[in-house]
Amino acid sequence: MNLRNPPEKFVEPGQSARLAGHWVSGVDLLLICSALGTPVFVYSEAQLLKNIHRVKDGIRAAGLEGRVSLYVPFFPNANPHILKPLQAEGAGLLLQMPNEYDITTRHGFSDFIVSPGHVSNEEIGFWCKKGYRTFLASLDEINFALNENAPTISVRIDSLDSDKPGIKVGQLADLSEMLKAHDRTLECFEVYCGSGNSLTDMVDIVRKIFQIYLDHFPDAKAINFAGGHGFDYEKWGEQEKHFDWRTYFQQIAKLASEMGIPDTVNFLFEPARDVLADTGVLIAGVKRNIVTHSNGSIVVTDGSRMLMPSAQLRNRAHNTVFLDSGFREINESENATSCKIRGRSILRNDYILPGEVSVDNSVGVGDHLMIMDVGAYCATQHMEFLNVPPAAEVVVDINGIAHLVTMPGDDFDKWRNVLPEPRLIAGSIPDSRESRIA
Ligand SMILES: Cc1ncc(COP(=O)(O)O)c(C=O)c1O
């Protein structure tokens, strides 16, 4: 599919300031949706590259080149085809499960760090053998790794004292004693600091992290600042939505020098949301004209909250655009209605987005809903509840060519592991159990 010259199909010139310059205005959605139907997630390689370049430019401008490594977490998008361009950009992946290692290595990835959460000794052993920096999340897990003489020890610290896996701040002195008792030092520590933080918050967090280094782990070779960099879902302009990486890295360089952090200490970052969110849109079909009843008005779509459950769960008000059957934007006139965006299942709460959206009264059967900024924490969270199959995923590459990278789920996806007939578990017949005991 060649999508090089289609924009006039999509938005009339001068019609939409909101989408002006947005990558989706250059994509032939008519062609993609005719081929695959809806719902469908569409991603842009060009936008992913733009986003990673924004981060790298900030690193360069602050004079931190060579001192900073980027590891984009795999799980918030979890599609190796979509993340592939990161490899050529020198960005690695953050993994948290052994199956992620299997799928990403099959797709040629090899530069990893690992933040596994709380895991068994066997799984710690698995990652130790692979040799990647693994950020362990409790004193117990670290104790095991120390007793096993693990070649390198890194830890994950939960700076918020939240329920996320991680050593709590009150345990840092114990951790430092434990390392001393084994005559070991930390290779690196990762600090979880929540999500969606402002620039000011993130700079304050850096100050606290440097203080942790100075107070507890002055021999560590590297500091991992993790993610948490804010992305504003409610803005339209690219600059307004994205985190200000340039000022952030400048502040880090300044603080490092003021606080006496040695130049030999390297910095790691794990940005997901800011690098991935606006690389994706979800297109759903509108299946009825606006329905109004005693509980308000709804737009009926073939989408579902099961396709991207965390928008509802986290109250994330993604921007929306309505498109007509030819995928031209439907501009809102004075005749608009505030509507909830209904998914296709019977569930009371099957609304794809939280709250209501203003919908032009002309929107109806055959039109489309485009949900913006769905590149992180969306398709990867698909739920099979209510038997909703996952949506197809398409990547539009740097040359404007569209590629199907995830087949839409078929109607029997939910039951793919259900056996045609029950299968006997060996030894479970009472007689054979007795003979085993005897
Ligand atoms: C360990 C770790 N690193 C990075 C991230 C990504 O954070 P963000 O999406 O805020 O960039 C997360 C998100 O949960 C995380 O748990």
UniProtKB/TrEMBL annotation:
Gene3D superfamilies: Alanine racemase (3.20.20.10), Lyase, Ornithine Decarboxylase, Chain A, domain 1 (2.40.37.10). Its cofactor is pyridoxal 5'-phosphate. InterPro entries: Ala_racemase/Decarboxylase_C, PLP-binding_barrel. This is Diaminopimelate decarboxylase. The lineage of its organism: Bacteria, Pseudomonadati, Pseudomonadota, Alphaproteobacteria, Hyphomicrobiales. It comes from Roseibium marinum. Keywords: Pyridoxal phosphate. GO terms for molecular function: diaminopimelate decarboxylase activity. One of its GO terms (biological process) is lysine biosynthetic process via diaminopimelate.
